[in-house]
Design goal:
This protein has 554 residues and is α/β, with parallel strands linked by helices. The protein contains 19 helices and 20 strands. Among the domains are: 55 residues, no CATH class; 137 residues, no CATH class. It holds the Pfam family Zn_ribbon_HMPTM.
Length: 554
């Protein structure tokens, strides 16, 4: 398997700039594949690349070099695609995605766009159909196409795809969405989440019950802030959507798109509001904005925010209850996968994405103080990970796997400070059950006063790193039966998203004639919103959500 290998042809240190590594990227103007340098300057990580036609592009890559170094220790290659849809001898990333034989991660989460219609028109969204624009198209795969895409996912090897996200547009605009969900379940997928703004569920609780019964496990609920100013799209509707989820036993993940200078001052309050609703909200997954379209450097600097920047703001805005040191990159969980795989002698689901793609931590609520207790405060995570990795190697080298796993289980308690462990949680027992029984039923105990905090920074043309792209495990299913990594599908839409979907679409006018309604008829008119506009100006002054977030600080 040939990976990208770029030789160092420059002086490692140029003034205050210190080279970290070389990779490849693309020109944000013409998509030409370019050699790129990742370097440190003033404690931050940047990328630079030069197109012979359009010149140099320098972009912030990672807001903290210290965190970059810590996270980079978890860099590991995954199993890759053993049954690729695109066979190539030499890596030509990102020219021919789908998955290709050089890709290094199986599908951790597969996305399926079921419609490109949306009932909102958010200014920062990279994808919804806009009537009147040249080339606008209506894309809604048929049920037969949905089934064929699911079969493609389930045929993936060595790990058949088993986790789906229904996305759009707004999936709940699709009239047959319940049938679409049922098809996914019929094809053998265990976990289905719905990426939604929640407006339909706020207006129609029965719709929540229907999709839950059809097979949706949780909502991936857009939630950009606790005030009308930062979250005008569904600020008023969120409490009602949560109540619909609560009544149907549907768990919720808050998904804030984080934009510097717009809502990055409300990351702590978002977590506080999730804390107020932990009976139904089990996670907050922050997404630093991906800057699409043509944008000047000054404008990019105004909006650009990276994972370390968000993590630092969370520490400040939670008054140090969740610190920078509490976070680990996503691939840090690989040692647990490795030891389970060594014990079972079968390939197991893994999260082998690039260390700069995402991060996470678990926090728990202290029953008395109501303050957060991160996992790192009562568990030696690094010690456990090293134990898992060491024992996986021992099993692979021929040591009796049953005795080795018993030794792992016996040692687990030594990494836990039981006096600081939250009531209702037995971490050592939970890991023991996972390791010995390969049962994940006990994972539910994480959600006893527990909240997962995640961070996922999708790339754009200015910071695209092809080494990251080769390790992407968030993929899109397409009607031409390919599986395309997120940061190719959406970063280069003229090659992937738009090119593929236009082939299977119809014009907006043809769709309107076929269904007998106008596209704009599906737009949300804000019928749950109070006031006549002064509330937006008032911001947090009239926000019950902001009040509840503030109360949790007392």
């Amino acid at each position: 398997m040939e990976l990208i290998q770029i030789s160092n042809q420059k002086t490692p240190t140029l003034g205050k700039k210190s080279t970290i590594r070389f990779t490849q990227s693309i020109c944000p103007e013409c998509n030409m594949i370019l050699d790129a340098e990742v370097f440190e300057r003033d404690g931050k990580v940047f990328m630079t690349k030069t197109c012979p036609t359009h010149g140099e592009c320098e972009e912030l890559y990672f807001g903290s070099y210290d965190m970059y170094k810590k996270f980079s220790t978890y860099w590991i290659d995954g199993k890759g695609a053993h049954a690729p849809n695109v066979m190539i001898d030499k890596c030509s990333c990102p020219n021919n995605c789908g998955l290709c034989s050089n890709h290094l991660s199986h599908s951790g989460l597969a996305n399926m766009i079921v419609t490109n219609r949306c009932d909102l028109t958010c200014w920062y969204c990279f994808f919804y159909v806009k009537k009147g624009l040249e080339g606008a198209y209506m894309y809604e795969p048929s049920q037969d196409q949905v089934r064929a895409m699911m079969k493609t996912l389930r045929a993936e090897r060595p790990i058949p795809g088993n986790s789906m996200q229904i996305t759009g547009g707004e999936p709940m605009l699709r009239e047959d969405i319940v049938d679409v969900i049922k098809i996914m379940k019929e094809e053998g997928v265990d976990h289905i989440q719905m990426n939604t703004n929640g407006i339909r569920f706020a207006l129609d609780p029965e719709a929540m019950r229907e999709v839950r019964l059809a097979g949706v496990n949780n909502l991936y609920l857009s939630f950009d802030g606790v005030t009308p100013r930062t979250n005008p799209k569904n600020h008023w509707e969120i409490p009602y959507a949560l109540e619909s989820a609560r009544k149907t036993g549907t768990t919720v993940v808050f998904v804030p798109t984080v934009i510097k200078s717009i809502n990055d001052h409300e990351l702590g309050p978002i977590i506080r509001y999730a804390q107020k609703n932990m009976d139904v909200v089990h996670a907050v997954n922050f997404q630093p904005v991906s800057l699409t379209g043509r944008m000047g450097k000054k404008e990019r600097e105004k909006y650009r925010i990276t994972i370390p920047d968000c993590i630092q703001r969370i520490e400040e805005q939670t008054q140090g209850e969740v610190t920078v040191d509490d976070w680990f990159p996503v691939p840090s969980c690989m040692p647990l996968t490795n030891v389970i795989e060594a014990f079972s002698s079968k390939p197991k689901y893994e999260l082998s994405i690039h260390f700069a793609c995402g991060a996470g931590t678990y926090i728990f609520e202290d029953a008395e103080t109501k303050k957060f207790v991160p996992l790192t405060r009562f568990a030696d995570i690094q010690g456990m990970l090293e134990l898992f990795e060491d024992k996986a190697e021992e099993i692979k080298s021929g040591k009796n796997k049953y005795f080795t796993m018993l030794e792992v289980v016996r040692k687990l308690s030594s990494f836990i400070d039981k006096k600081k462990q939250p009531a209702g949680l037995d971490l050592a027992k939970m890991f023991g059950s996972i390791l010995m029984k390969r049962s994940f039923n006990s994972v539910g105990s994480w959600h006893v006063k527990g909240l997962f905090l995640g961070m996922m920074h999708f790339q754009d043309k200015y910071n695209e790193d092809l080494e990251r792209l080769q390790r992407c495990d968030i993929h899109y299913l397409t009607p031409d039966l390919r599986i395309v990594p997120f940061c190719a599908f959406n970063v280069i839409p003229e090659w992937y998203r738009d090119r593929i979907q236009k082939k299977y679409s119809i014009s907006v006018e043809e769709w309107e004639k076929r269904v007998g309604v106008k596209l704009e008829d599906g737009l949300y008119r804000g019928i749950m919103r109070r006031g006549s506009g002064d509330e937006l100006a008032a911001g947090c002054a009239k926000s019950q959500m902001m009040h509840e977030a503030s109360q949790s600080l007392m």
